[in-house]
TrEMBL record:
UniProt keyword terms in alphabetical order: Cell shape, Cell wall biogenesis/degradation, Glycosyltransferase, Hydrolase, Peptidoglycan synthesis, Transferase
Protein name: L,D-transpeptidase catalytic domain
Record-annotated active site: 255 (proton donor/acceptor), 271 (nucleophile)
Keyword Hydrolase annotated: yes
Species in which this protein is naturally found: Micromonospora viridifaciens
Signal peptide region: none
Family from the record: Belongs to the YkuD family.
A molecular-function term among this protein's GO annotations: glycosyltransferase activity
Domain of life per record: Bacteria
Listed Pfam families: YkuD (PF03734)
Length: 305
């Protein structure tokens, strides 16, 4: 028992001595550094990641509001775009042969100044109606604060509109016309619905290539149109002087004829003729503002061909 106690006490004392000396040295070292002003080494810090949520300075990344070109005031005496050929000076449509669907249109709610470029010159006013027909123009391009639309009463021209004075409408349909195969195809939501054989413009009065749109509809003025309403398009003859005198100033039309015999031929004054049943179908389904694209031939025939 006594031997066990002495052994235990001796072992405990030896253990304290062994541990105590290093502890005292460490304590003395820390006290000495504190007194001499030398900081104790800090634990290694974890790597930090920059806070990417901090907003960039305005000068490095200008806000959209700062980059909007201002719209110059439009003089009150600017011409208003009507059924007559549009004023000159508007830019060419940069994607006139583009067959991708145009899915939105602009409907003016008041007279809107039309410019030749974002922040450019105002050249005309676009009114809510033309000849009493409500106007919807397909949107072809957008930039901050500005919207480009196909210009009525002109071929392959666009107009730039500042914000305000118009609203957007959805456009589901598209009409593609191929001159060489004399084919018209109606698309909805990007899918071909139906195709028809058509007659097109004769040599010297060819149906104009490029993008245009359905401007409105009108009753047939004569019995030769087969008693079915006519779609007036936003395009006009490329050479107005080449058409007969009685058609001077007229727009290119999409309409039927009293006979289907000329279908598939170049016999019109630039208009697009299809069957009476096909015209009735389009009149019932396709609204004004729908884009119409005339090309020579599609790379791949539509599934409905």
């Amino acid at each position: 028992m006594l031997f066990d106690r002495l052994t235990s006490r001796w072992a405990l004392g030896w253990l304290l001595a062994v541990l105590g000396v290093p502890l005292l040295l460490v304590a003395a070292l820390l006290v000495g550094r504190a007194m001499t002003g030398t900081p104790a080494p800090a634990p290694a810090a974890a790597a930090t990641v920059p806070d990417l949520t901090v907003p960039a300075s305005p000068s490095a990344s200008p806000s959209p509001q700062q980059s909007v070109p201002a719209a110059a005031p439009a003089p009150d005496d600017l011409p208003v775009v009507t059924y007559d050929p549009a004023p000159r000076g508007f830019p060419a449509d940069p994607g006139t042969g583009d067959t991708r669907p145009l899915t939105e249109g602009v409907t003016p709610t008041r007279d809107v100044a039309a410019y030749d470029a974002p922040g450019g010159r105002p050249l005309a006013f676009l009114a809510p109606t033309i000849s009493g027909v409500k106007v919807t123009m397909p949107i072809v391009e957008r930039r901050v604060g500005w919207t480009a639309v196909l210009l009525p009463s002109a071929n392959r021209r666009i107009a730039w509109l500042p914000a305000g004075g118009w609203r957007t409408v959805a456009l589901r349909d598209q009409i593609l016309v191929e001159r060489k195969p004399h084919r018209l195809t109606w698309y909805r939501d990007g899918r071909a619905v139906q195709s028809w054989k058509v007659s097109l413009g004769m040599p010297g009065q060819s149906t104009p290539l490029g993008r245009t749109f359905i401007l409105g509809r009108t009753p047939p003025p004569q019995s030769v149109y087969g008693g079915v309403d006519i779609f007036a398009l936003g395009s006009v003859p490329d050479d107005p002087d080449a058409v007969p005198t009685g058609l001077r100033g007229a727009h290119i039309g999409l309409h039927s004829w009293y006979t289907d015999a000329p279908l598939g031929k170049d016999v019109t004054n630039g208009c697009i003729r299809l069957t009476r049943s096909g015209q009735r179908k389009l009149l019932a389904e396709v609204p004004p503002g729908t884009s119409v694209v005339v090309v020579d031939r599609l790379p791949t025939p539509p599934a409905t061909a």
